């Protein structure tokens, strides 16, 4: 169940945009930061306020004015992303009891397309860095339980503190990202008109790794069949 809009090994500069586009078409379509089954932690632990107050005293943990808590595990280099960028990250999200609710090794994620706490954290990171963040519910998904629409089961307790380990692998501007996606769609359409089929638009010339290329081709075949 996707609740948000939610990078890569070094590659040649000329193929960067095309590579991002291939990753994005696979991963954005699948959704990001999806909620999986979780246990209700509210009756088992101290209050969120007490937890965050204690965690904020941990060496290396910075508490920002908004209440976000941020720790640098490994420093990165260069500039930080802005609201107009799309990041490429590896992340793992857990609840206070250690329940993993989502994780991904390479996810394209727009800075301005996620919950406020996650967005704020991304803008404090640098390329190549690894970080840990604690997002209070007010900066996350708020006080209401999130339930499975089919079963009614609570899959995310309200007022959950979200804990993420995040590695910022790369980032590009949204303008460059959208331009690359448009170019790839044009290539796909041209290949289909020429009788090359959906897979021809995602060939090796796009600079996409074989495993990602296979996923992309399968997705495009599925879209074409609909």
UniProtKB/TrEMBL annotation:
Class of the enzyme per the UniProt entry, highest EC level: isomerase
Residue stretches of biased makeup (Gly residues): 194-204
Chemical reaction(s) catalysed: [protein]-peptidylproline (omega=180) = [protein]-peptidylproline (omega=0)
Transmembrane intervals: 19-37
Ranges of Low complexity composition bias in the record: 181-193
Single annotated GO MF: peptidyl-prolyl cis-trans isomerase activity
Domain PPIase FKBP-type, chain residue ranges per copy: 84-172
Keyword Zinc included in the entry's annotation: no
Region spans: Disordered: 179-226
UniProt EC number: 5.2.1.8
Keyword list, A-Z: Isomerase, Membrane, Rotamase, Transmembrane, Transmembrane helix
PANTHER family, per database record: 39 KDA FK506-BINDING NUCLEAR PROTEIN, FKBP-TYPE PEPTIDYL-PROLYL CIS-TRANS ISOMERASE FKPA
Family: Belongs to the FKBP-type PPIase family.
Name of the protein described by the UniProt record: Peptidyl-prolyl cis-trans isomerase
